[in-house]
Write a structure and sequence with these properties.
The structure is a homodimer. Chain A is an alpha/beta fold. Chain A is built from nine helices and twelve strands.
Amino acid sequence: MEIITSLQNSKIKELNKLNEKKYRDESNMFLIEGDHLVEEAYNKNQLVEILITPDFENKFDITTTIISEEVMKKLSNMKSPSKIIGVCKKFNPLSYGNRLILLDNLQDPGNLGTIIRSAASFNFDTVILGDTCVDLYNDKVIRASEGMIFNIDVKRCNLINFVQELKDNNYIVYATDVNGGSTLSDTPFDKKMAIIIGSEGSGVSNELKRLIDANIYIPMNKKCESLNAAVAASIIMYEVSKIDYE
Amino acid sequence: MEIITSLQNSKIKELNKLNEKKYRDESNMFLIEGDHLVEEAYNKNQLVEILITPDFENKFDITTTIISEEVMKKLSNMKSPSKIIGVCKKFNPLSYGNRLILLDNLQDPGNLGTIIRSAASFNFDTVILGDTCVDLYNDKVIRASEGMIFNIDVKRCNLINFVQELKDNNYIVYATDVNGGSTLSDTPFDKKMAIIIGSEGSGVSNELKRLIDANIYIPMNKKCESLNAAVAASIIMYEVSKIDYE
């Protein structure tokens, strides 16, 4: 059994670059960590190869490299590194469904991962990531998604062009507005719907605002200006998930 | 105008200790950063003094120390330090209201801050923090709360004893259960209610589970095991906030 023990090993140095967005963009690859995430990636056919420590009980039928714990520590982003890291290929779907959540300039990786997790939970079809959002393949995003990044399509694109396309195809475009709009639980959501969530700091951009068909209001105490972006997105998706179309 | 410029200044060294939980516990004081938070603390009468950089336009009528930007950088937890830091006194309320959210061993500071923000938004009376939860005065908690830590009472205590006290006083104790229970939107919540949210890793502890009166289920896709703890808490509080008692 050959074990890579050198931190200077060329394969390890190459893979470690995937901890930076620049190299993930160039290679279209990214790293994931831990048994649970690797299994989700494997089932979704996005896993390319794995790296494991000698004591890991391997059940995955895929190209495998054994590495020392020191090497694992170098590749890992966790305080307590796990025993397995997976190398995955990115996937940007071409098509999309009827229930869409659109994220405009969202910056917090925890929020993005949490929204992906909620979108999968509440049966949304596709998460649409504006091209100024935080990187989908940031390790914090992937961890916060709890593996759901492999269970719902996430499509990255220019939101202005995309929302125009949606409107040409008879989607209704919704957004939250703290200043008013129709109360969330009374909103008659269309079957083909796109809900825009704005950035943590400044909400929906002005360019996108012009394209919104309806504003939604989540009733709340006046002393609060707004909810956390992931919470607002999740509450809306929760309400939408109650609707049953024929 | 006297300006503290030395990082070795004894007052600065003392205050900097408040960035560690141990010293916050000893002194019953904590630091907050930025205009918005300081204003909330001031309005709630929890502000003791402030430290500002020379260019800060001070509107607060309170003991003020002027410090150099370098000293501010030492005290700050932010990449881009703000121009004002506030020293606050802790507050642990004795009484509590009818709508309570109880947090059992919650560990993520972002989740705690987000739940406090949602609890204030959805008109809960008190957040009850189990004594094994993450420290309320962690700077990440305070930032994630968006100042709502000063707009809703947060009481720290032993949850087992507290839930016993609640039951003696005819509160109904609810918790989420991914395996079943009554569907959230059909749950007849009592006027005197306590909702327990479990830890991110392992849910509600077994000792507390025995004290639960009713389990709530948030309907979701089977491929997801659970929601993020702050999202689950917020969705439940959102549903409860729709109820109007006479």
